Each structure stands twice: as structure tokens, then as C-alpha cells.
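hiii so um. not sure if this is the right channel but i have a protein structure encoded as C-alpha cells and i wanna go backwards to a sequence. like what aa goes where. can anyone help
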């Protein structure tokens, strides 16, 4: 009983006190001990990790609008400062970015958007904007304005979804596993080279996806309420953890990170109504493990996160809860 009480206390404390992950709570559970929050992101890779050079761009768009969330403003005064943070953006800040970008996209007939951000926010910001922005215009997240502007002004960047590119000059898609699948690269001549001629988005963000056809309200750039979606790294105690948190009114959802196969799933999943959480629970693989997680090896009350990382699963679930989508069937349809 003391372990469960301490765990709930720690989770709810971090829910109010930390911004280490977008939806605040980021706990790591190691049997009895909770450790310090982590960001769960990896460093960008150097090089292109494969692919072929299909050629550079031949034209550029007319202009871009620059928003700053981290770092210094350009000396020419061409950017809009939203805030300046060196840590991972929290959910309130993510929604402020989406609101500013959405207003710009609706009012501007010009080119794309460049967002200057700390590298620690690349994963969360790019995936969040992939959900809440439904646009064909270029939206590029970067920690180098010159490189980001090069990509955003390239005419072939449109229709590719939210992109991010750092000082390594490798371009990644925000709707895919972080730093895993490069879609292009910026050359030393500051021209963008794309590995795929045709712009494409992953299935869950395509025009015919459940996200776009059923939940178009997710593009509403307004945070309706504070959403607590903890990420918990478990080591064999997932069923005890989720059932003990099942009646907590302060939690909108839970992301459990584990690469262990759960045995006796059927018995474990529906043994009693008290063991079933009252909020949605997403089960995902650990960061850095790019593989598919199916529902065959997780408890029956949980929803498989597919290829999504813990942070991506947390963001998608948090946006859903923010828009009052909480039923297991609806949440399951959103995840890949």
C-alpha cells in the first residue's frame, strides 16, 4: 500500500511541478524507486542514413514567417518572439505556438513557417503540430534560422507535413519516429535535396485518415484545460500501477513504456472491474526502439501505441483528451 501511495503522490506532484515533457508528468518507475525525469529524445544522426539524392530544388517560395521559442531574435527584426526557453516546451506553450502559427497560415498568402526551437523540443513540437495543423504549406522547426529558412522557402517542401532540421542539415518528418527516417538534406550550397520526389505523409496523417476525417476538431489550437498524461517506465508492475491509478480524477490518461511481453493477457485484462482503469492507457516501446507494438502482447485494457514513441503517444492522447475523446474505441482508432 505504501508503494502505491508514494507512486501516486510522486506522479501528481510532477504533474504540477515539471515541464520535462509536453503534458507535464514524466515519471520513471523502477520497482520501488522513482528517478529523475528525462526527456526521452535522442540526438540527431549525422549523415543521411541511406536514400538517394533525387536532386535539389529548382525554385523557392516568396517568403517565410519566423517564430522564436528558443534562442535570440534575428537582428533584422523579421521574427516574432513567443517565448525563450531552453527546455522542452510544455503543453501550454505548444498550444500557444499552434495558435500563432495557425493565425499566420490563415491570414497569410505568402510562403511557409519557420519555428526556432531548442533541439529538445524537436520531437514534441513537430509531432504536436503534425496533429493540430492541417496545411499544405511548409512548416519547418529548426535551431538554425538560415538552414530552416532554406528548407521552408524550397518549393518542394510543401505538402510534406511538418519538418524539422538541425545544424546537421538532415531533414526529418515530424509525423515519423524522431531522427529515424530522413526525408532530405540541406547541402553546403544551402539548397534542399529531397530523397522522395513526391510529397507524402504517414498514414495516420493522410487526408483519408481517422484523424482528418473524424476528428477535424483536433485542429482547434485552443487548450481547453490542463491535461495530465503521465509517462511511466515500468518494470513488471504495469497491472498494479494502472489499477491503482484507475480512480484518480487528476489523470486524463496514462502512457506505459515497456518492452516486455505480458503473459496471460486475457486473465490479467478483465479479472475484475476494479482492475480496469477509468482513463485510456497506451502501451509503447522504449525510446530508440523503432518497431511495431501490437495488442497481442499487452493487457486487454491497454491500447497499443504502434510505432509511436512515448512522447508521441503522450501528445496524441493528450490532444484527444483535450478534445473530449476518451473512449477506448475512439482512442484505438487514432493510433497507428
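sure thing!! here u go:
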Amino acid at each position: 500500500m505504501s508503494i502505491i501511495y508514494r507512486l501516486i503522490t510522486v506522479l501528481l506532484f510532477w504533474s504540477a511541478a515539471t515541464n520535462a515533457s509536453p503534458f507535464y508528468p514524466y515519471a520513471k518507475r523502477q520497482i520501488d524507486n522513482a528517478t529523475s525525469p528525462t526527456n526521452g529524445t535522442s540526438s540527431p544522426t549525422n549523415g543521411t542514413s541511406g536514400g538517394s539524392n533525387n536532386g535539389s530544388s529548382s525554385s523557392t517560395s516568396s517568403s517565410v514567417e519566423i517564430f522564436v521559442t528558443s534562442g535570440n531574435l534575428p537582428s533584422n527584426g523579421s521574427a516574432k518572439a513567443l517565448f525563450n526557453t531552453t527546455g522542452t516546451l510544455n503543453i501550454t506553450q505548444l498550444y500557444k505556438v499552434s495558435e500563432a502559427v495557425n493565425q499566420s497560415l490563415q491570414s497569410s498568402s505568402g510562403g511557409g513557417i519557420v519555428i526556432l526551437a531548442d533541439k529538445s523540443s524537436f520531437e514534441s513540437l513537430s509531432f504536436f503540430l503534425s496533429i493540430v495543423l492541417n496545411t499544405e504549406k511548409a512548416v519547418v522547426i529548426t535551431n538554425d534560422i538560415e538552414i530552416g529558412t532554406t528548407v521552408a522557402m524550397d518549393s518542394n517542401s510543401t505538402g510534406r507535413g511538418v519538418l524539422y532540421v538541425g545544424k546537421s542539415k538532415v531533414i526529418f518528418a515530424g509525423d515519423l519516429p524522431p531522427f529515424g527516417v530522413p526525408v532530405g538534406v540541406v547541402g553546403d550550397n544551402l539548397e534542399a535535396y529531397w530523397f522522395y520526389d513526391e510529397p507524402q505523409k504517414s498514414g495516420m496523417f493522410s487526408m483519408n485518415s481517422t484523424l482528418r476525417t473524424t476528428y477535424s476538431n483536433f485542429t482547434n489550437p485552443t487548450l481547453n484545460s490542463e491535461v495530465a498524461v503521465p509517462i511511466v517506465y515500468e518494470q513488471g508492475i504495469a497491472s498494479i500501477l494502472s489499477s491503482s491509478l484507475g480512480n484518480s480524477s487528476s489523470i486524463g490518461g496514462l502512457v506505459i513504456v515497456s518492452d516486455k511481453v505480458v503473459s496471460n493477457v486475457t486473465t490479467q485484462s478483465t479479472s475484475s472491474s476494479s482492475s480496469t482503469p477509468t482513463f485510456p492507457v497506451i502501451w509503447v516501446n522504449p525510446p530508440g526502439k523503432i518497431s511495431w507494438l501490437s495488442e497481442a502482447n499487452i493487457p486487454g485494457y491497454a491500447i497499443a501505441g504502434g510505432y509511436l514513441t512515448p512522447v508521441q503517444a503522450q501528445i496524441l492522447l493528450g490532444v484527444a483528451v483535450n478534445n473530449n475523446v476518451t473512449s477506448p474505441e475512439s482512442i484505438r482508432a487514432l493510433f497507428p
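oh and The longest strand covers residues 26-30.
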